[in-house]
User: Which sequence fits this backbone?
DNA sequence: GCGACAG
DNA sequence: ATCTTGTCGC
């Protein structure tokens, strides 16, 4: 089974470790979660904190002191709105943290960094590296029908739709699944946000080939969501992303650390995920990329209707 | 100061 | 993708 940590829970548990009178930063919290790349995701998660110190109706142990988290240079950072930042400053001053010129005074002395954490993202990186060994980059599929999959969100709930097409690109059937999402978007960890929903949809129907919005091996650990889905579900899979996640573009070819991992096809950055060659991935996207927006529309409709 | 940073 | 609480490196 595919287990995903509740990163909101992990993040809030860490924030509770910051003592009154001290502050920490989004980046230090991200490091405690296991990867500094999650700094923005930390900010996003704190933005969804429903138990801030502005809540007077909750017992103290339920409160999450997200006002104690500031930017890496000591500036105050966000708190929902411009008005919210005033609240954040007031809460900090009440705890003995002075704010001068929009920055925490004596920032270095006030900075808390001794988090006790299992660094969950570190484990996930290890899992990605392990799974990457199973990627197969030769054609091992029958091009009969194929599925295009996309995801939409409404708050903490995700909606996944897979539209199945036949070889002429005629639309056949749509399958959909939804799930509560406890993992924010973090660059290079997309699978941990979306794969649970994708696996649910694949329980309803397994097409002979799958096209996913995102990367395959065009990823620092070769484990973009299309590779991750392909290996975990053991299904032929291609990734098509609308923007580049690292790598160098040389003509139509995309390289990572000198290795050819995919192609730019029209507006898409294409890389194989599993059981598909780089060349076939390119040909299939060239032929069918006009259908990708249909899956996006299907996911959106699912999200609105539910 | 601007871009990188899948969705 | 939504909805708006980053950070680092050039």
Assistant:
């Amino acid at each position: 089974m595919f287990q995903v940590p509740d990163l909101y829970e992990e993040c809030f548990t860490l924030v509770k470790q910051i003592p009154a009178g001290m502050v920490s930063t989004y980046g230090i919290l991200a490091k405690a979660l296991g990867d500094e790349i999650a700094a923005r995701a930390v900010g996003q998660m704190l933005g969804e904190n429903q138990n801030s110190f502005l809540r007077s109706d909750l017992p103290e142990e339920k409160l999450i002191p997200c006002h104690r988290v500031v930017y890496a240079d000591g500036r105050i950072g966000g708190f929902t709105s411009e008005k919210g930042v005033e609240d954040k400053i007031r809460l900090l001053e009440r705890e003995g943290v002075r704010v001068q010129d929009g920055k925490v005074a004596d920032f270095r002395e006030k900075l808390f960094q001794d988090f006790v954490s299992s660094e969950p993202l570190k484990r996930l990186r290890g899992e990605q590296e392990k799974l990457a060994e199973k990627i197969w980059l030769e054609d091992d599929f029958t091009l009969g029908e194929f599925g295009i999959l996309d995801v939409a969100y409404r708050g903490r709930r995700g909606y996944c739709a897979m539209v199945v097409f036949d070889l002429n690109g005629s639309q056949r059937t749509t399958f959909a699944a939804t799930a509560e999402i406890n993992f924010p978007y973090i660059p290079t960890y997309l699978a941990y946000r979306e794969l649970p929903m994708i696996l649910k949809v694949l329980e309803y129907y397994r097409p002979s080939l799958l096209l996913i919005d995102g990367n395959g091996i065009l990823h620092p650990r070769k484990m973009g969501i299309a590779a991750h889905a392909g290996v975990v579900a053991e299904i032929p899979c291609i990734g098509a992303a609308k923007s580049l996640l690292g790598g160098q573009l040389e003509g139509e070819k995309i390289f990572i650390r000198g290795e050819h991992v995919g192609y730019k096809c029209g507006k898409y950055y294409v890389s194989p995920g599993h059981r598909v060659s780089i060349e076939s991935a390119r040909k299939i996207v060239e032929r069918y990329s006009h259908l990708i927006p249909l899956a996006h529309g299907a996911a959106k409709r699912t999200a609105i209707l539910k």
Remarks:
- Chain A is about 35% helix and 20% strand.
- Chain A has two domains: 7-118, 130-305.
- The radius of gyration of chain A is 22 Å.
- The longest strand of chain A covers residues 171-180.
